[in-house]
Amino acid sequence: MTDIITNGESVDRFYPLEGVFNFRDLGGYKGLSDKRVKMGRVFRSDNLGQLTAKDLNDLKKLELRTVLDLRTEDELLRRGSYAKKPDTPARFVHIPLMDVSADPERAKTDSDYLTYRYKEILTEGAPSLYQVFRTISDPDSHPVVFHCAVGKDRTGVVAMVLLGVLGVEPDTIVQDYALTQLAVTNMLTWLDNISPDMARYVRSLPASLMAAEPRTMSQVIDWLVSTYGGFEEYLEFIGVTESEISSLRRSLLG
């Protein structure tokens, strides 16, 4: 795993895998009542359909129970999924969290384009987010990993709300989001070798679309708090119960 400094402490977050570049542990962050998010219980990632046989073997030690895929049905068909891999013990849960196809032309001229998209996920994607957090709040789902295509946008929004309701400070949530930039760099290097055409296409997109800038997540957090009152209030607004939120905290903080 890659050593990352968070909250003044050295924490291993990134798992070195052959076909996946943004698989990392959300544990170790300081949350409510001076407790910390438990290591090895909840992970975020990019497309697990790209896992190699070696990757699948390496991940066995995590004893994953649930893989939560946030991509659309079309993405699963085009890019593969964990569900199609052989000998995968974890339960596969598919909860599409919007079609977030980018608008490159708008991204060229709107520096806050991703902020707008993340707000859209939180509002228009609320029914799916309700299902996501009901799944994650069930302790029988743990250890759980949730992912999208790159593990940046849809996954980043879920991670933001999850860490927020666990009491992780906004600055730390922003830092976690920004770690994705390391993964994007590694992914592009990998694409250069296995799919040069795809690598060229990705590099032709506005840089902001593949970026994980702290400013973007800071703006979204500020908007969520000002609009709903906080992370717990947001989850209650979309239908997650107090009991489910309490279960989430009991299961993931220690």
Molecular structure report:
This is Protein tyrosine/serine phosphatase. One of its GO terms (molecular function) is phosphoprotein phosphatase activity. It comes from Ferrithrix thermotolerans DSM 19514. The chain is α/β, with parallel strands linked by helices. The protein has one domain: Protein tyrosine phosphatase superfamily (Protein-Tyrosine Phosphatase, Chain A, Alpha-Beta Complex). The protein is built from 13 helices and 7 strands. A 5-stranded mixed β-sheet has the order 3-4-7-5-6, with helices on one face. α2 links the parallel β5 and β6. α4 packs parallel to α11 (214-228), α6 runs antiparallel to α7 and α7 (170-178) packs antiparallel against α11. The two termini are 22 Å apart. Residues 1-10 have low confidence and may be disordered.
Average of pLDDT: 90
CATH superfamily placement: Protein tyrosine phosphatase superfamily
Query: Could you name the CATH class?
Result: Alpha Beta
The radius of gyration over CA amounts to 17 Å
Question: How do the helices and strands line up, and which of them pair or pack?
Answer:
Elements (H helix, E strand, L loop, with lengths): L1 E5 L2 E6 L9 E2 L16 E4 L7 H7 L6 E4 L3 H7 L11 E4 L9 H6 L3 H12 L1 H12 L6 E4 L6 H12 L4 H9 L1 H15 L1 H9 L2 H4 L3 H15 L2 H8 L3 H11 L2
Parallel strand pairs: 4-7, 5-6, 5-7
Antiparallel strand pairs: 1-2, 3-4
Which terms summarize this structure?
single chain; 254 residues; alpha/beta; Protein-Tyrosine Phosphatase, Chain A; five-stranded mixed beta sheet; two-stranded antiparallel sheet; 13 helices; globular; disordered N terminus
